[in-house]
Amino acid sequence: MRIDSHHHLWDLNAVHYPWLMETGAPRFFGNPAPIQRDYLIEEFRRDANRFRGSVHIQVGAEDPLAEARWVQIVADANPDWPLRQVAFCDLTAEDRDDQLDQLQALPSLRGVRQIVGRAPGEDAVTGTNALLENPRFLDGLREVWRRGLSFDLQLIPALYAPMAELLRAAPDARVALCHAGSPHDRSAPGLRQWAKDLQALSTLPQVTCKLSGLGMFDHHWSTESIRPIVDTCLAQFGPDRLMFGSNFPVDSLYSDYARLVTAYETLLPEAVHGAVFGTTAAHFYDFVKTDAG
Questions:
Q1: Nearest-angstrom CA–CA distance, 235 and 127
Q2: Is the pLDDT reported for residue 42 higher than 70?
Q3: Which of 56, 196, 197, 241 has its CA 20 to 30 A from that of 107?
Q4: In 3-state terms, what secondary structure has residue 60?
Q5: What is the DSSP letter of 240?
């Protein structure tokens, strides 16, 4: 079964997304105007027509719990489409455990995400980089893993080393590295340095990598321009720790779904397609687990 391990949905009448509806503010991923509209499961399934299941990743809702509950409604209404979700939890909050309790009441929940780094310029404003120095965040991560949940890790290369230091003390953690670790410098020297830095995370067996979101830092990407990233991720993580994610509809700003999949199919050896497009995500996000279990 082919699984898209990283995508978003939104119903703008059900949940509010401040970042999405903001106008006039430059964003590293481009102008969101074309996606300032509903993107529902029906359209996603048409886009991902060769896939048979997916993982919804939280996407900056004003009310994260409302978003997670809405995703559960979508999952319940589409039993023929296995839908798992990674929800937001503020791991530094006083009510963190209550947040996690409420999220774990949702059968589709498999993990949480709290973004550590998006892009250098934006991170300097939001201050999310400071999370790795916050003892409450580290304690929250441990609680996530103690509960048997995974953590979707989005950060930039400058933070690989301190994150790896943390993870070396957490061998039972399950971490999904979003967007191949956000290699934002796409020059040849930049990619060489990224590949070197990535080893801090790729050498840790508890980290699985997503080939996702590569268009956010290369709006005019081509199959050849992303080849060094795909080759590096496959070499460092291997197919059993590598999974495809479309990052739709954000990456629909740069290409259609079919072109995206074709590029990865071209770059990856056919022998690893089964793992990267399916079984790695199925194991990581526990698609075998039933909604009652």
A1: 33
A2: yes
A3: 241
A4: coil
A5: G
Output the CA–CA distances (angstroms, integers) from residue 13 to 36, 40, 67, 159, 242, in the order listed.
12, 11, 12, 36, 35
Question: Exposed, middle or buried by CB within 10 Å (0-12, 13-18, 19+), for 87?
Answer: buried
Q: Which of the four pLDDT bands, split at 50, 70 and 90, describes residue 289?
A: low
Give the DSSP letter string of 145-175.
HHTT-EEEE---GGGHHHHHHHHHT-TT--E
Q: Evaluate whether the domain defined by 3-284 bears CATH number 3.20.20.140.
A: yes
Query: Domains of the chain: which residue ranges?
Result: 3-284
From CA 243, how far away is CA 254, in angstroms rounded?
20
Rounded CA separation 208/225 (Å): 23
Per-residue pLDDT tens over the stretch 188-215? 999 999 999 999 999 999 999 999 999 9
Q: Report pTM.
A: 0.96
